[in-house]
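Fold this sequence, please.
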Amino acid sequence: MPAPRYENTYVKKVVPIQYTLRQIPPALDDALREKSRQEGKSMNQTAIETLFSGLAREGVVILHRDLDFMVGSWVEDPAFDEAIREQDSVDAKLVHISDY
């Protein structure tokens, strides 16, 4: 009796295409760098989003493969900090010497 055959399901990996751009005008370089700083994003992400926008491709989902989009998004939250501090304490009523 032949061994059973199983179909393997493979997800086709999409390999991003890499570009090298030359002779970028200084004004464009300055504008991209400034936008990148203001938005707290990498130059690469800023350039990709700007190309999408410039080609009127709004609404196209950009698949992030890193956490650059989170840079600069931290918001201080005292309630969160307090909740974390509370988790670091041990309730003495729940600790038994025999547990050790």
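Residues 26-90 form one domain. The longest helix spans residues 26-39.
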